[in-house]
Design goal:
This is Methionyl-tRNA formyltransferase. Its EC number is 2.1.2.9. Belongs to the Fmt family. By secondary structure, this protein is of the alpha/beta class. It folds into two domains: 205 residues, Rossmann fold (3-Layer(aba) Sandwich), CATH 3.40.50; 105 residues, Methionyl-tRNA Fmet Formyltransferase, Chain A, domain 2 (Roll), CATH 3.10.25. It is built from eight helices and 18 strands. The strands form four sheets. The chain has a seven-stranded mixed β-sheet with strand order 5-2-1-6-7-9-10, sandwiched between helices. Strands 12, 13, 14, 15, 16, 17 and 18 form a seven-stranded antiparallel β-sheet that branches. Strands 3-4 form a two-stranded antiparallel ribbon. Helix 5 runs antiparallel to helix 7. The longest helix is centred in the middle third of the chain and has 26 residues. It is elongated. The model has no long low-confidence stretch (mean pLDDT 93).
């Protein structure tokens, strides 16, 4: 099989997907069509804005499809007319079988976790939030069940308590590109898609559920390590958040985004007369902000006040006074 014989239909939305599409374009693969989400209102002016994939692809001269419904007959007819050999879906919504079965070789997916762990919408975030010691990318054949197809290839990376979502996302995108490169090369050489291995599930599978306003809020009733992991898994976007309650305040507490933290393991509480409430602030070295948690102390390293830009904590404390008796809630 020649490279041009592999007629690729690419489906994706996010910046993670863009890196894989960029690879396909730079390596001169025959991408015959691109499917992404419809434009959505964005920003203060609520102007329509395309997905990162559309923004990247708009000048490539490749047909772009943005169907509201993936089962629309007009959309399916347009895809059939492209006569695709292989579908590649990355960071997109769940596909109906009318779409993923359409390419003659079927459809493959690059998913940012070590399947079957963290099936679902936000695998990188959940791996960090859970404090996983490793994660990776999986390339698998699509089926009609969410992220449950046979795994063709995997790559693994190590995680530490210093790894945050932003850098981990970018690293996994690079690893995903390598997986895709290897798989496509083998497909062209053999003239068919490599055979995958069935996912082995021990116990109840873990799902990376969609991030919401509720599950990104910090609960100070958790241990410092758990809060630190939440911050790591959400930084820089969408970011963990909390509210600052000031003493005597009657209006709605202000929302603060927390971007970077550190667990303080050797804090001495000998000078404290009683255990302070969770979320309250402890005496700390100059330029530091220490917060009481259910178990342990958390140092806030970077945050963003309402209507302000992100600041490291020393710059924040230089320009903002936290009234005595205030606390995070």
């Amino acid at each position: 099989m020649k490279k041009e014989d592999l007629r690729i239909l690419f489906l994706g939305t996010t910046s993670f997907a863009v890196e894989h599409l960029r690879f396909l374009i730079e390596e001169c693969y025959n991408v015959v069509g691109i499917v992404t989400t419809p434009d959505k209102p964005a920003g203060r002016g609520h102007k329509l804005k395309g997905s990162p994939v559309k923004e990247f692809a708009v000048d490539l001269g490749i047909p772009i499809f943005q169907p509201e419904k993936l089962r629309e007959e007009s959309f399916l007819e347009s895809i059939r007319a492209l006569n695709p050999t292989l579908g590649i879906v990355i960071a997109f919504r769940m596909l109906p079988k009318e779409v993923w079965r359409l390419p003659s070789m079927g459809t493959i997916n690059v998913h940012a976790s070590l399947l079957p762990r963290w099936r679902g919408a936000a695998p990188i975030n959940h791996a960090l939030i859970a404090g996983d010691k490793e994660t990776g990318v999986s390339l698998f054949s699509l089926t009609d069940k969410l992220d449950q197809g046979d795994v063709i290839a995997m790559r693994t990376i190590s995680l530490s308590e210093k790894d945050y979502f932003g850098a981990t996302h970018d690293l996994l995108a690079q690893e995903g590109v390598l997986l895709l490169k290897e798989t496509l090369s083998e497909t062209i050489n053999q003239g068919l898609l490599p055979r995958g291995i069935q996912q082995l599930v021990e116990g109840e599978p873990l799902y990376a559920h969609k991030l919401t306003k509720e599950n990104t809020r910090i609960s100070w009733n958790q241990p410092a390590v758990a809060i630190h992991n939440l911050v790591r898994g959400l930084s820089p976007i969408p970011s963990a958040w909390t509210t600052l309650v000031e003493k005597g305040q009657t209006d709605t507490p202000a929302v603060y985004k927390i971007f970077e933290t550190e667990v303080i393991v050797d804090y001495s509480s000998a000078s404290l007369k009683k255990r302070p409430r969770v979320g309250s602030f402890l005496p700390a070295p100059k330029g530091c902000l220490y917060v009481v948690t259910q178990e342990g102390v958390l140092s806030i390293r970077s945050l963003q006040a309402p209507g302000k830009k992100r600041l490291d904590i020393s710059a924040f404390l230089n320009g903002f006074h936290i009234p005595e008796g205030s606390y995070f809630e």
